[in-house]
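Thread: "does anyone have the structure for this chain?"

Original post by V.I.:
We have the sequence but no experimental structure in hand. Need at least a predicted one for the grant figures.
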Amino acid sequence: MPVRSLPPPTKRRKTAVESTSVKSLETQLTSAVTENGSLNPLADLLILAYGSSDAREMSKAVYSVYRVFVLIITRGMLVHGGDATAKLVRKWIWEKLDSYAELLVGLLQDEEPALRKSSLEILFSLLKHLSTSLTKSSLTAQPQFHFAHFKHIVHGLLLCPPSPRSNGSNKHNSKMMPDVREHFVESWFSVYDDIRWCFLREATTVLSKHSPVENPHLLDNLLSIMEKLSTFPTDSSELNSWWVEELGVKPPKHKSAKGDAEEDDAAESVDGNDEDDWRKFFDEDSNAKDEKKNSVKGRAYTLTFHQSLFSLQAHRAVFTRTWLNFLPHLSSISTSSNRALTTRALNIMHRGVLPHLTRPVLVMDWISACVDLGETVGLLALNALFTLMRDYNLDYPSFFTRLYAFLHRDVLHLKHRARFFRLTELFLSSSHLPATLLASFVKRLSRLSLNAPPAAIIMIVPFTYNILKQHPALMVMIHNNPSTNTDPFIADEPNPNSTNALDSLLWELHSHIHHYDPAVSTVVRIFSEAFTKPGYSMEDFLDHTYGTLIETEVRRKVKREPALAMELRKDIFPMADAANLGDCLAGRDAVSELWVFE
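Reply from O.Q.:
Generated one for you, tokens below.
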């Protein structure tokens, strides 16, 4: 073979598919769908879409394929029926549609934001078209939802496969992009009831089939969506928004085993003269009855899919199932990332999760296990336990014992100190708590203040003042006359009801009158004055740090100028001792000589 005298060509020779433009292929396919022609150019168009490295060319190809598939779906070419040839063509089209959906799912992780947003919008637009087509071709009269296509969307959001344009270089190929998450939550998840219900259902399936060990960002991706949910329905009348419009038609009533007429007969059995009817005092409010009539009755597992979308109980059931499957994964592996996820989950537990569970006590075991982790996680778990006790009648006798265990030296030096005081004030706000219990908390905080920074002492003082003001039985702790020099308080006792704190004194707080920080010494003096102030707002004291204390002192206005020596004296340390009078006369300063180093 002769040696080449010219360098090899730098440009690769274009194939027949590449030389064909996207626009011409789309034109061919449009005419083929209209005239029942060959759809083979669809494969060439998908090859162009997969092979595009430029973001603009990729966007053109993706939208071109989208318009072709919308035309195919609206023309009914994916509807069941026809001869063997039609079935083969339909199977081939489904394969290409699945391939296109996988391309769009991968583009959710693309480096180009415009491609990520357009891919998500196209996926949901195809979902609407496919569901409408499935409803029209269904043998039943009920509207349908295309779960097969929706699974692609859920897998793309939770598992996050890499973009076809990344070539394995995307370092965030398993973590959801923030803009994709925000767009999904704000445009679909928090808006449409059918999308929320179906997503929660499919997310539970993904959790059961994919291990968080093999998919390290699966839990993070799911929690980042769940914690953004702030529009969960609390009444059946709020179930009125549907992405698939056909699902907005109200379903038929659920048929129970006893028949449908049972409720109507019970409603008509009350006499017209209801003034003397004793049953009305035990009946529910009429407004509550009207609200229940608007929803679909029946157990959640006996309802059809369409009936479940109109049942508030079914929405709560699928929400509960997702959380019950999600929470155990957080505690199965003890890692720093799982601990951070546990903190995020507990942050929303009391306001965003517990009110919407079918039975909130189902998460009691997981929350109790989180208390043992201590620090921020344990404190947030106590907050969730307190919500269960207060709002859902949970019996947890050792709650205050567990809270008392958090009062150790480190709690006043950690960054979550302000949160601890906020929650502790909430936990001890009941006026029915025994004085011995509250005395233990006050005494323990008073003892910890001896080694606490000034900012923490400023929090402890108004906290103690509020408790003493609310519970006058504790006033003896600042008025007792000790009979011995020993403090009866048992500091090592874990049970707050057995510490003898009520017989002790708050001498630790009194000692801060001579604190080096004037802010501390000033605020502590409130205990030596009459308790005429109703109480202090803790929010005014929770944000103090060393920086804020120094800034306060720097900005303090000096009311009276301090005395200063305007003339420089030679004998800064005059000798006052008469025995050394001769040294003074000789001009010798013994004190100054001590600071001369040779």
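V.I.: this helps a lot. The radius of gyration is 37 Å.
O.Q.: and DSSP finds 27 helices and no strands in the chain.
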